[in-house]
Amino acid sequence: CIVTVDAQKQIADIKTSKTVLDDFMDKRFGMFIHFGPVSLRGTEISWSRNKEVPREEYDNLYKEFNPVLFNADAWVKAAKDAGMKYLTITSKHHDGFCLWPTAFSDYNIMNSQFKRDIVGELAKACKKQGVAFCIYFTVLDWHDSDYPVHNPYDSTQNVIGDMSRFEARMKNELKEIITRYKPYMLWFDGNWEKPWVQEYGKDIYRYIKSLDKDVIINNRLGKGENTAFSAGSVGDYLTPEQNVGELNMKDPWESCITICNQWAWKPNDTLKTLKECIQTLVKTAAGNGNLLFNVGPMMDGRMEARQVVRLKEIGNWLAKYGTSIYGTKGGPYIPNKLYATTRKGNRIYLHVFEKNNNKLALPSLPNIKVKKAYFMNGNTVSFTQDNSSGIEINLPDVLPDAVSNVIVLELEKNAEELPIVNN
Ligand code: FHN
Predict the structure, then answer these.
(1) Residue minimizing CA distance to atom 3 of ligand 1
(2) How far apart are CA 373 and CA 382, in angstroms?
(3) Is 236 exposed, middle or buried (0-12, 13-18, 19+ CB in 10 A)?
(4) How far is the CA of 325 from the centre of ligand 1 (A)?
(5) Which of 27, 98, 137, 197 is 20 to 30 A from 283 via CA?
(6) Which residues line ligand 1 (CB under 6 A)?
């Protein structure tokens, strides 16, 4: 497809509004779900095809796929109990299997034993429980005969394909998804392979916006880095992966990170500790970003009980300290291993992860005074402040929260206007 100059101009004219993106960034915390027939093998979705699982076997797993214990309300409740404000499901991953009844590919859930619209049931449950519903969609598809790459591990298996037909099918599938499920955000992926060029990304972005001008679109429709906008970028926000993004007050960004190691379910995978989970969330918010935290449900449709417990523990922490996360801005200090800060109005939320001793030194804040300081659970905190030597917080022998502590610094004026302070 050739995108004319007008089309490029049109993209600038149809970008998702700041109001919509600000609403997204205020949510701070979402659930990512990687699910599909590969859960029958406990190997990585799409990437274990032609590797741990021979292609023929992988591509026929759908015939056994029957997650009879799938309960959309339970998945959404697990997200909500974790304090997550949005949920993103892999409607189609690189293996090409569609979790919704699409008219444009027979390789879909209605031709498995399960014969239920997983995407649709999740959309309904999210609406009922007040969680924003989002959809992951791959722009590469190793199962689709029109897509030239059939095996990322062996280019001799590549075919000519027909990218025009492939893109046309993608538009038809996206139209089904957008008009039927009305997603809040679309999470594209798979833009790194050669057949996908930026012009397709621009054309798809324009097409999506013609269907819904407010749907949020990540930056993986274009080419180039996930973590910074460049000439090749197409999309609204940056997507660092498996690490907390750098502090960035200019561009919206969201880190996607797994609660275990694998994206799809893996038996006995390593589950992150509560401390790791909370401090990952805090450092993401302190960097002015969102966290899309991934779970991989089991082959029978349930999430692992230990993961549901961990999610609830995260939610319990957020029930006490969520004011220091939701709707805040990152900074003014750059996160480090001892502390990180978020801010809202005249308050800085000082997140203390660990302490070397009972003194926590913060660089001075330009032309602004801290009026008082206290732990979010209420205990007063003494401190000294000096324009040259900065702020020294006196910490108790034992910090009140074993996972992550929040000290509120009440300032004499708005903290959100402060520049980033190098520490
Ligand atoms: O290849 C995928 C991977 O399986 C997973 O879906 C992640 C999630 O962000 N994205 C791609 C790797 O960057």
Answers:
(1) 263
(2) 7
(3) buried
(4) 26
(5) 137
(6) 45-47, 189, 241, 256, 263
Whose tokens are 């996206």? That residue is: 174
What's the full length of the chain, in residues? 423
Q: What is the mean pLDDT of the chain?
A: 96
Distance, CA of 298 to chain centre: 20
pLDDT bin (cut points 50, 70, 90) of residue 1 is very low
| Ligand 1 atom closest to residue 294's alpha carbon, by position in its atom list | 8
Q: Judge if pTM exceeds 0.85.
A: yes
Interval 37-48: pLDDT, tens: 999 999 999 999
> For residues 278, 260, 290 and 370, what is the CA-based torsion angle, rounded to 10 degrees?
20
The predicted structure's pLDDT at residue 387: 83
Of the pLDDT bands very low, low, confident and very high (cuts 50, 70, 90), residue 367 is: confident
Which residues touch 97 (CB under 8 Å, ≥6 apart)?
36, 37, 62, 107, 108, 109, 143
Question: Which residue has better confidence, 356 or 262?
Answer: 262
| pLDDT (0 to 100) of residue 2 | 52
Question: What does the pLDDT look like over 145-179, one tens digit per residue?
Answer: 999 999 999 999 999 999 999 999 999 999 999 99
The whole-number average pLDDT for the span 228-257 is: 97
The torsion angles phi and psi of 369, rounded to 5 degrees, stand at -110, 145
Best residue for ligand 1 mutational test, from 189, 191, 262 (most atoms within 8 Å of Cβ) = 189
Q: Is the pLDDT of residue 73 over 50?
A: yes
Q: 6 pLDDT exceeds 70?
A: no
